[in-house]
Structure formats: C-alpha cells, structure tokens
Design a protein that fits this description.
Elements: E1 6-12, H1 15-20, E2 26-33, E3 36-43, H2 53-76, H3 81-102, E4 115-121, E5 124-130, E6 134-139, E7 142-147, E8 171-176, E9 182-186, H4 188-194, E10 195-196, E11 201-202, H5 205-211, H6 217-231, E12 242-248, H7 275-297, H8 330-333, H9 335-356, H10 360-366, H11 370-391
Antiparallel strand pairs: 1-12, 2-3, 3-4, 4-5, 5-8, 6-7, 6-9, 9-12, 10-11
Length: 392
Amino acid sequence: MSREPVLVNVSLIGNKHISRGTPCEDASCTLSRDGVSVVCVADGAGGSKYTHARFGARCAVDTIAELLCKHFDAFYFENRESVSRSMLVTAVHSSMAELLVTHELDGLERLSCTLLFVAVKGDLVLAGHIGDGLICRVSSSGISPLTLPTNGENASSTYFITFPNAQEYLRFIRTTTDDTHAFVLMTDGVEEMVFDSGSQLIRPVVARLAELAAKGQEEAEKELASTIQEFVVDAGQNTDDASVGIVYLPETEAPEFSSLSDSKARLQRNHEDTIRSVQMEWVSKVKRAQEILTSVREGKPLENMTGAAQSEDEEPVSEKTKDVPSGKPVIEDNRDVRNDVEEKKQEEKKQDEKKEVPAPAEKSAKMVPLWAFLLVCGAFVLTAIALIVQLI
C-alpha cells in the first residue's frame, strides 16, 4: 500500500431523538498516528437506565483509537486472542470508571454502548465488534461482511462493551488489506437500511459511500453527512442515530458498480441447528472424555475405559442441560451438565446396591449364627458324656 488510508467518520442524530428532545447517543472518531490509522463507531444504549450512554460511547471510541495507535503491534502479534480481547475491554472499563466519578454514577451500565473499530498499519488490519451494527469489506470483487450484527435474546436487544464478561462477546479479527479497497463501519441506524439479514445481502450503496472518501476527508465527510441525512435519517419519523466510519485505501481497485446486485436469494436456514443442539449432542462424548482425562491424571488403568461412549438415548441427560449458555465450549463450561450426569450416575449406583444387598431378614433365614452352632455342639457333647456315665 503506497499511500496512507483516508479516514472518514460522521455521526448524526436520528428523528426519534429529535422528537424526544434527547441528544445523539452515537459517537465516532478517526485517529492516525505512528503509521496506524483507526476508525471507531459506537452506539449508546437507549432506555431510561442508560442515562449517560452518549458519554460511554464517546469514551469507548476515544479509548480504543488511542490504544491501538500506540500498541497496534502488541495486539496484532499476540497469539492469545483471549488476552487481547480482555485487555481491550479492560482499557474501556478503566476509562469509563473515571466517568463514574465525574458524573456521580452508580455503575458502568449507565454508560452502555456497542463498539466497532478497524485499525490499519501497512498491510495489517485489526478489527473488533461487539453488539449490533456492521463492518463491511469493499473489494474489487464486491462487498462482503467482515463482522455481522449480533442481537441478544430478541431483535431489540444486543451486547454492550460495558458487560462484565464483554470479552466473551467481542469479535476480534486479525487480517490484511489484500484485495481490499475500503472498510465501512456503521451503527444499527444505518445497518438496518443497507443490510438484509435474511439473505446476508449488503446493498451496493455501501460501496458508493466508500468511494466518497476518494475526495479527501473534509469533502467526503460533508457529502457523507448529506447522504446519510437524506436517505437514512429523513427516511422516517422514528429513525435512530446514524454513524458511519470509512477506511479508504487509495490506489486500490474499486468494484465495478454496475455488476453489484441489489437482490439475493433468501437463505434456507435450519433454525433447529444451533450451538445448543451441538452441545446436547456431544454431552455423552464430553462426559466420557472427562472420565478418561481424570483417570489419566490420577494414574488409573484405562483397560476398563475401552468401551464406546454411550449415546444420549442410552443415558438421558437432565433438563438442566437445556440451560447451557450457547457459544461457550461445552468441555470447559458444562458444569451443570456434568453435575447432573454425575448425580444420576450416583443415584443409579445406589439403586443397584439396594437391589444386590439382601435384606437383614433374608440373611438371618439363610445363615446360622456361630454362637447358636457352638451352643448346639456343647449340648450334644454333654448329653453324650451323661449317657456314657450311666452305662458305666
């Protein structure tokens, strides 16, 4: 890549907030320093309990931009992704903690927001995303999602960077700029207008928005704001705040706009094929694996472990297994499943013991006590002696 990326960002208030007299809760920023270029966008949570979400959104984008400009290499070359994700979340939480003091708040929940970012250094790219919204990659061959929106239990809920376990939901991507013309980031106010989740189609307008950056940051931001205002914010009376961020790579090949499709066949998704169903399917195999590993750790022989793992039909699993959180590795986090299986195993063992051990009454009927045997023998001996004496 011969030239530095062009960075563009805009955040506009939606008509929903204008009609309510509330401020824009989105935030976005760009930062270029030490050979690193970063774009971040965030969407402050809506709702009465998220009283200072707009401050949280601003804090999140500023913190991540500064952190990645200063420590891009540390995050890109760290092999332990969990450590990188935890550090990013910790940095945001630490910065937000200062806002608790400034605004006299009772917890980070008041500052809840989603977060999306892309950082570029040379040919290397770091991207992260928690919550709804969308990050797209525009290339010579078209438009593809780099990350997809993630909702919670229903379409109106999502995940926030302020969650205590936010690192579990933060998608963290290390890639390169190969075959990339631009990255486009957007909060859900824009995502809902340009992304069809049913077909996974990203509309061609996203590529045209990215191309505005070819005019330079200042001019691009003016035209981008005007376009988003007209076609997104003013599209209805109840539109949400809208933020867009662009990382444009000069001297790279843009897609052929006439070849980009504005329609796509709807996906035939099997809604019964979920991570939870996979977890349930593997419960018996995981249980057996844990038994084998326990035997290995304790130095026990494995001769009695050669049988195949039982299927679920052979060994029913407690209803509690339905509550195993989806998205977590079963072999590490199915403690409830393991406990239920172990409890069932112990119960069955007790029942078997009850069946095998004879009742006390049966035992006394079949066995003569030693003292009774000795008493009978003694009486027999005394009788024999008495008879001999009489004969003499």
